[in-house]
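One chain shown below:
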Amino acid sequence: MPIVPKTSIHKDSAPATSSRLISLDVFRGATIAAMILVNDAGDFQTVYGPLRHSDWNGWTLTDLIFPFFLFIVGVSMAFSFASRQERGEAATTQFAHVVRRGSILFAIGLILNGMVAGFDPGKWRVYGVLQRIALCYVISAILALWFGRKGWIATAVACLAGYWILMRYVPVPGFGVPTHDIPLLDPDRNLVAWLDRKLLAGHLYQVTRDPEGLLSSIPALATTLLGLLAGDWLRSARASRVKAGAMLAFGVVCIASGEAFSMWFPINKKLWTSSYVLLTAGLALVCLALCYAVVDIKKWHRGWSLPFVVFGMNAIAAYVFSELLSIGLSAMHIGDLTWQEFLYQSLFAPLASPFNASLLFAISFVLVCWVAMLLLNRKRIYVKI
């Protein structure tokens, strides 16, 4: 882990399974494993379609990973805050913890971006995955601690509807009104990209725009709040089968709603459109419902779930470790080749076709990260922020 103030590493027994959902650890672990897999191909020019992001409108399996993780953040919050409340912690004390944790997450994201940019202020990207998680986490926490379910629902609806209104009807300075003067969701001529260029020109992931931009964090907040609602539902006293069935049904409704809404507001990961939020939250609900039914209701988790639980119980550590490893392999050289290029070309490229060799490298990268997390798990070390 990067050196960040107040990050703690605890060596203790794993949390009792009775006090946590094993299915949530499994779902979180699978999501982190998938995130590492798609981020670390051997050659990004030869990657199977489902393992690359959609170029613009539409979606692939890869486009589900980040919203799944934000959704899981919301689910986890419901359990974490309830546990702290049961221990007698005041809301203000919990919020102080939230602010500290959010600040550390944001700082880690900035440090990782700085390492990629060689700490050159002129190239240092400000936005990022951890930064968006931190922002959505802190705002969702405020709602979780001081507002009820109606407040969460109202905020989520306002985020989705308000974002659509902004993107559809507000003129983009210098370009005009979407659908009248410019196409709806034009890659560079949209309100999100315009605002990001105004605020942080030269510090954006794709030069003229950023997939984790400021304005698109509004609907991302709705993703987290839908996870919070799901976590609150899972904590209820209803029968387990009822909870699983309702999540599955509501997930299907969200998927259908997202697909229907896409006719007016296309599904787009880079802009995190409202239809994209509904679709991905629906798919997350379906996946969590099935995982909950198999793991926590049927108890069919012996053996096969361990690899995912290992990742799931040290999710942030796994992600940061993977980023540091990737940065290190890309920074060190053997002759004219980076270590990443050398390993890929000498060990993997001769084994299979370019697409399969690239996939083998990514799988091996995931396994290396998993072994590191397994060692932490066996020593009962869990990195907590």
Notes: The two ends are 11 Å apart (CA to CA). The CA atoms of residues 199 and 252 lie 38 Å apart.
